[in-house]
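In the previous chapter we treated chains in isolation. Here, by contrast, the input contains two separate entities that must be folded as one system, with a combined length of 506 residues.
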Amino acid sequence: MLHFPPLPENTRLFLRDTGEMSRFIGRFFVEGLRPRYEVAEFIHQCFAIGYKSLPLIGLTAFIIGLVLTMQLHPTMVYYGIESKIPAMVGIAIIREIGPILTSLIFAGKIGSSIGAELGSMKVTEQIDAMEVSGTNPFKYLVVTRTFAAMITLPFLVLIADAISLYGSYLGVNIYENLSFHLFYENILDYLFFIDVLPAFIKTFFFGFAVGIIGCFKGYYSTKGTEGVGRSANSAVVVSSVAIFIIDLIAVQITDLL
Amino acid sequence: MKKPNDTAVAVIRIQNLCKSFGTNKVLDQFNLELYQGESLVVLGRSGSGKSVLIKCIIGLIEPDQGSIEVLGQNALALDNVELDKMRTKIGFLFQSNALYDSMTVRENLEFPLRRHSINLSQESVNQLVMEALESVGLEHTVDLMPSELSGGMRKRIALARTLILKPEIILYDEPTTGLDAITSLEIISLMKSINERYHTSSIIITHDMKCVKLAADRVAILIDGKCYTEGTYDTLRQSTDEKIHPFFQ
C-alpha cells in the first residue's frame, strides 16, 4: 500500500477552497436555471450593483482618458506623431484599459459589498431566517447578485470606454484644436470589430467572477464580525486576481483568432 | 416520557435523533415530545446542542439518524414544497433576531407572507402586519429600519414576524440572551401571552433560569447529547442529582 506524505496546511486549504468553490459554481448553474426565478430581486440588484457604480466608474474612466492623453502627448510630439494620439488611446482603452480598470474598480466596490453583506447576513442568521420563510437563499442572494454583476459590468465598461474617450478628447484639446468628429474618425480608422468584441465578451466573465467570488466568500463567512471583514477583503483580492487570470486567457484566445 | 394529561396530543415527536459535526457528537439518541399547548424548555450548557436540536426540527440542519414527526408528518421525508408548507405552521425566533437589515419593519413582516406563496391582497397583508405589530405593542415602528430599534424592540419585531403566519408551534432560540433583566421579563411575559392568545405550543431553548422558571410548563435537560431528564421546574429544582443540581443553583 502506498503512503503519501501529508500535504502542507496551505496546499490542503487551497485545494479544499478550490473544491468548495467549484461546487458553489456548479450549484449556481443548477439553481440559476431552475424556476422559481427571482426577477424582482434581480432587477433590484441590477440597480444596486450597476446603476449605483456608475458615478465612481464614470469619474475614474474620465480621469484615466484625460491623464493618459496628457502623459502621451510630449512623447508623441517628440516623434512627430501626435496626430495618432486618438487612435492610440482609443485602442488602449477599448481593448484593455477600459475593461480591466472598470472591472477592478467594480471588484473593489461590488465584490467587497457583496462579501460583507452576505457575510453579515450569514453570521446574524438572516440567511437561515430566509430559508424558514419559504425562500431559497441561494437563489435569492447568490444567483440574483451574480447574474446582476455579469449583466451590468459589460454595459458599465461600454459607458466607461465612452467617457474615457471623451476625457481623451478634452486632453487633446488642451494642446491643440481638434473637432470631436475628427477625433472619433481618427479612432475608428484604426479600431476594428475584432478589437471591440473580445473586449466586450470577456467583461461578462469578469462580472461573473466578481459576483460569484463575492457571494462565495460571504455565504461561507464564519467567526462573527471578524469573519465578515475577512470575507469582504478576500472577495476583493481573489476576484481581482481572477480578473487578471481571465484576461490572460482571453488574450491568448483572441490571439488565436 | 410523561404526558401533561391523558388527552394531550404530541405536536412534535423526536426519536433517537443523532447529529455529529466531525468527531463531535452533539445529539446522541435524543428523544423528546412536545404536547399541544405546552411550553417546553430545553435546558443545557452552552454548546450542548440545544440550537442544533431546533434547527433539525425546522429543517435547517439535517440529522444523521433518527426521526422527527411534526404535526403528524415525518419532517425528514418531506420534499421542498412540503417542507415550506410545514414551515408555515412553525415559527422560529432566532437568537440574533435575524431581521433583514436592508428592509423596513413592514417589509420584514411582509417577507414570509409573500415568500410562502400565500395569495393575499395588499389590504390583507397590511392588516396582518399591523395585527402582528399590535400583538407585540410596536405598531408605531412599522416604517422604521431595524437599525433604528433597541435590542428589546428588535426581539419583539422578530417575534411579530414569527407570529405573522399564525403558527401552531413556536421555536424560541435563546429568547432573552443579550437583554437586560427588565426587558427579559417583558419578552417572557410576551411569550406567555402569545401562547395563551394564539394557543401555540412552544419549545424554548435557554440557559436563563428566570426564563425557565416563568415560561416552562415542562423542562427537559440536554446532557451529553441525550435528554437526561425532564419534569416541572419545581421537581427538577429539588433534584439532588449532581448533573441537574448545578443548573438550579
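Chain B touches chain A through 24 residues (CB under 8 Å). The longest strand of chain B covers residues 10-21. Compare these points with the single-chain example from earlier in the chapter.
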